[in-house]
Amino acid sequence: MSEPADKSAVTNVVILGAGVIGLTIAHVLSSDSPDAYNIKIIARDMPEDLASQAFASPWAGANWSPMRGFDEKQQRRERDTFNKLWDMIPTGLVMPLPSRVFYGDNDDLEQLWYKTLVRDFRVLESVEVPEGAKAGVSFTTVSLNPEVYLPWLKEELLSRGVQFIRKKVHSLGEVVALAGLGGVVVNATGLGARSLIGVEDQDVYPIRGQTVIVQAPSVKEFISFPMGEPSTNGEVTYMIPRPSPPGQVLLGGTYQPGNWDLSVDFPTAKGIIARCSALAPALRSPERRILSHNVGLRPARKGGARVEAEWRRLPLETEWLSAQDGAEPQEGEVLVAHAYGFGPAGFQNSWGAAAEVMSLIKANLNKTA
């Protein structure tokens, strides 16, 4: 029989946020070093709160949908995530998804960074490109359903002893008592990073997304037109079939930076259905049924996602809340790892970002060992 783990060597990790980023970080930490960390996840909204608009993860398209541009860190995160999700296909949580992505220009499509990562990549012939676009590519990617995937992540974590605490946190300093001096706080608060005392990142902003979920079993591919190029009123067009329940397809959508409106706009919904139906005639079939209208706020950040770690001295200068038990504020240092601001790419960055956060935590803790 093996000896029990040395309790004094266990590091307390408190993760703020139970969206896909926070949950995946907990999964990676508990997988890599199951006896090294005592993990707690604190959040106002939990993975089972799938109707809550207070966090973004339940409303995501949640396919792996590559972006143009050249950001080496983001590409590494997305590469790692694609490979992980592809390996998960046999579980049924993830499915391979034939895709066509159309663009408003034809520059360097043969040089797209992800062409050797996705399966079956090719540049489309001009006759395969619909009116309004100039070029396009096809490939096989992956998709999942957040309504199934998020609860699965939570069950996985519960089976590993990860604790979930439902609590609205106003300040970074509030969680220090749980992490303890020398512990780790992971800030995976998404849009909450804008108002979290001790972080107060004013570069964080929402990108409003409105979608429609339909039952349309004849729609079998992801189509985006044109990718990454919203119109002046924020309209974008895409459809994402999901692995479960069978036949569900997400239709989108909108891409509206700075818009905090969480209400459904029905003229917008009609436009989404009309644009998607023009690209996929199967959506005009009598078998198509509208299941729900959804609005979510993608948690974006000027300059891109923040994935970094810092030691913070306590008490925080901006701390203004009194300890609930009347105790004096702790003095010392705590390691804070930030992981937020992924915008429309939270799911497709999740496993890569989690591995990066784990590396940051290990490197910083080793410096103090």
Automatic annotation (TrEMBL):
Residues 13-357 form the FAD dependent oxidoreductase domain. The chain crosses the membrane at residues 9-29. One of its GO terms (molecular function) is D-amino-acid oxidase activity. One of its GO terms (biological process) is D-amino acid catabolic process. The keyword Flavoprotein applies. D-dopa binds at residues 238, 298. Keywords: FAD, Flavoprotein, Membrane, Oxidoreductase, Transmembrane, Transmembrane helix. One of its GO terms (cellular component) is cytoplasm. Belongs to the DAMOX/DASOX family. This is FAD dependent oxidoreductase. It comes from Obba rivulosa.
